Amino acid sequence: MLKNQKPQELKAWQKLQKNSIYDKRTLKTRFYEDSERFAKYHVNWDGILFDFSKNQMGSETYSLFQELLEEAGVREAIQQQQSGEKINVTEDRAVLHTALRNMGDKAIFVDGKDVMPGVKASWAQLAAFSNEVRSGAWKGFTGKRIKHVVNIGIGGSDLGPRMVINALKPFQTEEITFHFVANIDGADLHEVLQKIDPETTLFIVASKTFTTQETMTNANSAKSWFLSNGGQDTDVAKHFVAVSTNAEGVAKFGIDTENMFGFWDWVGGRYSVWSSIGLPVVLAIGFQGFQEFLSGAHAMDNHVAEADWSENIPALMAVLGIWYRNFHNAPSHAILPYDQYLDRFAAYFQQGDMESNGKNVDRAGNRVNYPTGPIIWGEPGTNGQHAFYQLIHQGTDLIPADFITAKNCQHSLRDHHPILMANFIAQTEALMKGKSRTEVEIEMRQAGISEDEVEKIAPYRVFEGNRPTNSIVLDEVNPYHLGQLVAAYEHKIFIQGFIWNIFSYDQWGVELGKVLAKTVYNELSGGPKHDHDSSTLALIDYLKR
Length: 545
Description:
By secondary structure, this protein is of the alpha/beta class. It has three domains: 7-72 and 307-433 and 467-506, Rossmann fold, CATH 3.40.50; 109-286, Rossmann fold (3-Layer(aba) Sandwich), CATH 3.40.50.10490; 509-543. Helices cover 47% and strands 11% of the residues. The strands form three sheets. It has a six-stranded mixed β-sheet, sandwiched between helices. The protein has a five-stranded parallel β-sheet with strand order 6-5-7-8-9, with helices on both faces. The model has no long low-confidence stretch (mean pLDDT 97).
């Protein structure tokens, strides 16, 4: 069980508090004073460069970060998680997505049972099925091979596979096109159905319980479409498979339970892409590619557990995030990938981070009196530069940002990449340096602008700078390095939640809306009225069919 401790009572936390008050040197000043700053504050490990030198910290703060990690007992917490202890206390569960990518021979026990034989059996099932589909041996009801795969899920059952599929497009088979349906809004499924045909489409219904309202509504509508377009009830098993643990529900739907891919209650939804939920990924890049994805994550699991705090990428990411959230009042954190294939990465970790650490009750059951999880947001560069970067550069809130890119690109338009890299580097420099009033005035006068205009316009062109960034550079976006990157953010989230003294692996906050939605749906469908506030009653009456 994770220990219960108030972060403000940690000596390192208190020292950081004082440090944040007294050390007000700007980033520009810090770089001017220390020509070796990059050399001191970067990690280059296994194909990942993590540059954290453009952060509001000096050597004392850096030492205090490590002291905080040590004093809080983060190393022990990581060990507790990875060894199968039931650290998800509110649901009495272990948290073992790390076991899903355990590429070594280490046994991992939950309730006295080694889970690895089951994990390896799952790998074998995924490998066999994906080989059959990818080779064309799996045929639809008219004898044609599968050309379209539609994943029907929501939350982690959608966001994870969707993000990875997008990220690894250059590694995908050209024989199959992948589609995703998540929203209960019928437009989502409708648009996908326009692009596919029933003879060559395989639907993956991803729902642990096989009762998730959004997923099962979409799945049943997809089945109706299939049956209305030539398929028979006996053909459903050739075109639908399930990622679920509800064998009875799966069989009733018409899916052969031999093609039901299960997972375990110690796998949380937002951490499930490593499990059978990753079936679309396996179909896209092959089982060998999926194993490389797992291997990258496994390498990061070992790194976070073993690396010294001074060189521990997820741990450094975590304490830097705490530094800004708790000591610099930064309400949000931007994730800015300079790689179009990572276009869903920020969206993926909106769930990963905010569903994990968006908590206001600590591990003792008391309301916290300090900020926890930040708002996570972002879009790919350079698109964001022409949209919301204005807020990051000159807005009133401090917005720390992760800039992510790859040294080598995965496309043929090589002349684009140096332009992308130039923008990647320049933005972090601009956010760090800013532009002073003096610099603005000199620049304007050199351009021949009148003194009156200089005086009028100069204030608007001043950039304060001192905006912190991390630069994360992968050798390339491939299955292995993507696995590393995703796992790094997962560990960052856990370390932050542990230090904040909250439980990162439950999500009770999403439940109430689901329960109320069922009640409202019945009322919209003509059922009896319930006691609601005037706004809710009025909306029901207005939208009632």
